[in-house]
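Field reference: sequence -> structure
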Amino acid sequence: MYDYIKGPITRITPEYIVIEVQGIGWQLNTPNPYVFSIGSEDVQVFTHLNVREDAQNLVAFKSLEQRELFRKLIQVSGIGPKGALAILASGNPSHVIAAIEQEDELFLVKFPGVGKKTARQMILDLKGKLDMLMENMDLPSAEDELPLFGVNPHKHELEEAILALQALGYSERELIKVKKQLADNDQLTSTEAYMKEALKILLKQQ
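Structure field:
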């Protein structure tokens, strides 16, 4: 029904953003709200209408490839819209596609809500069917250097990132360990940066 929405972003929360179009604020769930910024300039996001018995929710993505991968993921048995958003929150769809193509179950089970059975189902259902999505994607980047440790004053941004990770389904136990590492990293200054670093750490944990 809706292919994309274009307008200024007026609100950002841990779970969704709001884009204003002709005086109407559209509430859009998105994998990582903090990759967006509030401002007066128009932003275009690609959308998917998620219909349930009790609600109809619009989901927004920064790229067309991200949306199409989301649509592929929710077709897999055991993965719902929330689970697919948590997977895509890792940032680059190419990481997920590479894991599926290489049958890397150990990588896939690190996402919240994805067990061995679901990881295997993802591989069975999607391997060899994602070629079109990879045409304009970069390969996964190498690991970053180890962070420097120190005092980071950006507590508000850190708390926002933790709330967003909770909304994606990560447990309090997982986030306690991650939060300590993030708090000691004085190179992180924004909520988006905290989110990206936290997801890297969580995906490396068994």
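Note: Confidence is low (pLDDT under 50) at residues 139-152.
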